[in-house]
Amino acid sequence: MRYQITGKQIDIGDALQTHVKDGLNEAIAKYAERPTEAIVIFSKSAHEYVCEATVHLSTGLTAQAKAHSTEIYAAFEGCSEKMEKQLRRYKRRLKDHHSKRTDPVEHLEASSYILAADQEEGESETEDLQPIIVAEMQTRIPSLSVGEAVMQMELAGAPVLVFRHEGKDGLNVVYRREDGNIGWIDPRT
């Protein structure tokens, strides 16, 4: 597995890097068969250290975790525990569905835009009423079953996930509703 361990405006020593590699190997080995990449970023927010970890699995799914603590090692331990919990749930769901994915997840390339927030009170609107694009990026839309899409959304901690429903044309959306349930949008053509 490939590791990328970095710090945002803080120095990450060799001891912490070794601790992170050992800790992630231990947590991931129990539940994920073939992880391909782990990205761990440490930063400081006021008096707390923040640890953000992302693990890419060979199946195409991604697990993310984030934790805060006053000590950098404790921040990593909290993050590692959250990651382990997510991977445990992921593996349990795979067993529950009795379906083994033999092929990696296919991805469709798409553009992703960040639009500017509402304008200030005193500013006038643009004449053509077009939104101001702050950033334009490429994103990948996976080809998944609905169950896998819900699992990926929960692993990423995202409120919404756009995906291509396997075996069908068109895009689908799963999202977390205000009542705590999961919504699924399946447009019919």
Protein described:
The chain is an alpha+beta fold and 189 residues long. The protein folds into two domains: 2-97, Ribosome hibernation promotion factor-like (Double Stranded RNA Binding Domain), CATH 3.30.160; 106-185, Sigma 54 modulation/S30EA ribosomal protein, C-terminal domain (SHC Adaptor Protein), CATH 3.30.505.50. The chain has three helices and nine strands, in the order βαβββαββαβββ. The strands form two sheets. It has a five-stranded mixed sheet with strand order 5-6-7-8-9. Strands 1-2-3-4 form a four-stranded mixed sheet. It starts with a strand and ends with a strand. It is globular.
Q: What's the arrangement of strands in the largest beta sheet?
A: 5-6-7-8-9
CATH fold group of the largest domain:
Double Stranded RNA Binding Domain
Summed over residues and divided by their number, the pLDDT gives a mean of 80
- Supply the number of structural domains: 2
Number of DSSP-assigned strands: 9
Instruction: Profile the largest sheet.
Output: 5 strands, mixed
Low-confidence runs of at least 5 consecutive residues? none
CATH class of the largest domain: Alpha Beta
